[in-house]
Amino acid sequence: RPLPPTDDQGDWEAPTFDSGGSSAEDDDNLRVVEGIAGLIGNTPMVRIPSLSEATGCDIYAKAEFLNPGGSPKDRVALTMVETAEQTGKLIPHTECCLFEGTVGSTGISLAMIARAKGYRCHIVIPDDQAQEKYALLTRLNATVEKVRPVSIVNSNHFVNVARCRAREYSQTASSVTITSSPSESHHSHRTHVALRGHHQGYFADQFENPANFAAHFNQTGPEIYRQMRGQLDAFVAGAGTGGTLAGIARYLKPRIPQLKVVLADPTGSGLFHRIKHGVLYTPLEAEGTRRRHQVDTVVEGIGINRITRNFAKVLEPRSSNASTPAAALPWVDDAVHVTDEQAVLMARYLVSTEGLFVGSSSAVNCVAAVRTAQQLGPGHTIVTVLCDSGQRHLTKFWNDEYLQALNLPTSFPDSLAFLD
Ligand code: PMP
């Protein structure tokens, strides 16, 4: 990894470009691909100089926002669709329709892949997300159904509605009428679908679908390992479905014995307490009363109050050997709680020091990466993920009026003093 020295630019020479390059690395950089699916994955790893210098560690981030759909969910969406195709649940260029409940990123990736492969796409999404997401989804020609954010135990939760719509679509012989909840009647959609050929609704189910974990275990984890040549001390990430954290942790940990895996958890999420104290902060039974959506949080995409099948992969035992002490935390070693204020200031710090314009979950990850660096001490290497760009958050996380209304800061710090 030819990196310039951080304190002395003197003797560093830029790598020369060999137009006849024949190494595998050159081939990777100069790849020519087939269709949009070929653009998914193989994202670069970026060292973040300001965070590295401030902590005395090397802090790297996997630039997942450079996927064509703008997030690591491209990998997940493609893997879910391809797995469904392999098992005959989806047939391209038929009347098959992808259904998903999502806070945005997975919907955008699925809508993009649906266009490329010839599927319909119906996305159910809470109505409190950044406007950019709805705009992108509709421009990608997905049907967008907004619902009120409610508990997962409620049948109107976006995941439950999406599951139900998929079933209805498959069952409906000649037409299907889709109407949003009465309180959202101005957003309601009416879709008539003629029956031609294969008429199958496929509920992608990113929270429970093992293809989500598989995408990160088979792609993102190995890419990180190769990019870092196995030299990293900690991997830090938040969890929305848990697919990223679990897939990468389970690929890397057996190969890097000293690796610390750290969960980055935003305000309102129950996972921090689950990792630190062994219990979910908000037990499922209490979901109706204490819920993440009732907490005014500006972070989108990460933080949950239930153990999804994908997150559960980090709670599975490390070994079937009963004599091995059953670690309380088999695959995740620690958790860092990140406040909204810290996330906002980190995002603004990254702009003022790096010109790096990221979304809220990336900012949470970077706060937790710095905290992990501070705990490990100088000389360690930490890898985290930049999930999406700030461009997808202009009307919310990057909107000054919105932040001011929540008493959150809008300054652009040039030091990490806000983490003291
Ligand atoms: N960042 C963003 C912007 C997301 O949308 C998501 C997924 N909802 C995540 C991070 C978390 O990824 P995962 O679902 O793999 O835990």
Automatic annotation (TrEMBL):
<comment type="similarity">
    <text>Belongs to the cysteine synthase/cystathionine beta-synthase family.</text>
</comment>
<dbReference type="GO" id="GO:0005741">
    <property type="term" value="C:mitochondrial outer membrane"/>
</dbReference>
<feature type="region of interest" description="Disordered">
    <location>
        <begin position="1"/>
        <end position="27"/>
    </location>
</feature>
<dbReference type="InterPro" id="IPR050214">
    <property type="entry name" value="Cys_Synth/Cystath_Beta-Synth"/>
</dbReference>
<keyword id="KW-0663">Pyridoxal phosphate</keyword>
<keyword id="KW-0808">Transferase</keyword>
<protein>
    <recommendedName>
        <fullName>cysteine synthase</fullName>
        <ecNumber>2.5.1.47</ecNumber>
    </recommendedName>
</protein>
<keyword id="KW-1000">Mitochondrion outer membrane</keyword>
<keyword id="KW-0496">Mitochondrion</keyword>
<feature type="domain" description="Tryptophan synthase beta chain-like PALP">
    <location>
        <begin position="37"/>
        <end position="388"/>
    </location>
</feature>
<dbReference type="InterPro" id="IPR036052">
    <property type="entry name" value="TrpB-like_PALP_sf"/>
</dbReference>
<dbReference type="InterPro" id="IPR001926">
    <property type="entry name" value="TrpB-like_PALP"/>
</dbReference>
<dbReference type="GO" id="GO:0006535">
    <property type="term" value="P:cysteine biosynthetic process from serine"/>
</dbReference>
<dbReference type="Pfam" id="PF00291">
    <property type="entry name" value="PALP"/>
</dbReference>
<keyword id="KW-0812">Transmembrane</keyword>
<dbReference type="GO" id="GO:0004124">
    <property type="term" value="F:cysteine synthase activity"/>
</dbReference>
<keyword id="KW-0472">Membrane</keyword>
<keyword id="KW-1133">Transmembrane helix</keyword>
<dbReference type="InterPro" id="IPR001216">
    <property type="entry name" value="P-phosphate_BS"/>
</dbReference>
